[in-house]
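Long-time lurker, first post. I've been practising inverse folding by hand and with some scripts of my own, and I keep getting stuck on stretches where the structure tokens seem ambiguous. Below is the full token string for one chain I'm working on. Before anyone asks, I'm not after the true native sequence, just a reasonable design that respects the backbone. If someone could post their per-position residues I'd love to compare against what I wrote down in my notebook.
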């Protein structure tokens, strides 16, 4: 399977506090997550480095890809991928620094114009959202499902959907041709690592149905 197709697990420092980061991410990988994004909004550079390095090793063991949110220097230092939003710096500059092989993702909200600019900057995938109500990011601007059809007909790159994705609504996104399902709460709000693995397996199965 292409590395840019499947479940894209995104970490959350609240849901994955108190020692849950590594066991829960490992469970997501065991369940079949293909990409992991390290999303940590703290300014603790040492802890961020150590956590990201540990996640990079876990992803390597599972032949999955690690993506760092917001932080080009950290992605470069670890030799892993990067996701940037509209406020996070230049995608083109990131592509130039990371080289042609690195996975680079860009947030496009509900805008085909932002997607066009991201394509021109050299991204590896286009992220649209939010498609459903999100407890993680309730104020993210909404995006309609039809946008996915327009994006797929206009761009050749993999399309990622984010925002309130659950096992119940994911089939609607897949019906509109989504390649990557980016999930935080529906995956990592679980009460145990075993439950994370079960949820990840259920998401991953949607791509083989
Ligand atoms: C896969 C994916 N898509 C969108 C986002 C959101 O990025 P951004 O708009 O920069 O918001 P933050 O995540 O930084 O709060 C993402 N992180 N990942
Ligand atoms: C980080 C993020 N970005 C979004 C966007 O629309 O760009 S929605 C979102 C939160 C995704 O978390 P959950 O799966 O818990 O809704
Ligand atoms: Mg960001």
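-- Answer (accepted) --
I ran through it position by position. Result:
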């Amino acid at each position: 399977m292409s590395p840019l197709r499947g479940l894209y697990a995104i970490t959350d420092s609240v849901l994955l506090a108190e020692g849950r980061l590594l066991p829960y991410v490992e469970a997501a990988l065991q369940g079949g997550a293909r990409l992991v994004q390290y999303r940590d909004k703290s300014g603790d550079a040492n802890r961020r480095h150590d956590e990201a390095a540990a996640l990079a090793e876990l992803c390597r063991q599972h032949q999955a890809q690690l993506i760092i949110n917001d932080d080009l220097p950290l992605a470069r230092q670890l030799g892993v991928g990067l996701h940037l939003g509209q406020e996070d710096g230049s995608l083109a500059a990131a592509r130039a620094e990371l080289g042609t092989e690195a996975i680079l993702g860009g947030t496009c909200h509900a805008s085909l114009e932002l997607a066009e600019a991201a394509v021109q900057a050299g991204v590896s995938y286009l992220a649209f959202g939010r498609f459903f109500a999100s407890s993680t990011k309730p104020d993210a601007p909404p995006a309609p499902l039809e946008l996915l059809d327009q994006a797929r007909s206009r761009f050749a790159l993999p399309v990622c959907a984010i925002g309130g994705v659950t096992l119940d609504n994911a089939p609607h996104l897949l019906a509109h041709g989504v390649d990557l399902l980016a999930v935080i709460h529906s995956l990592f709000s679980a009460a145990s690592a075993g439950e994370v693995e079960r949820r990840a397996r259920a998401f991953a199965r949607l791509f083989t149905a």
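A couple of notes from the structure itself: The chain has one domain: 6-206. The chain has a mean pLDDT of 97. Happy to go over any region you disagree with.
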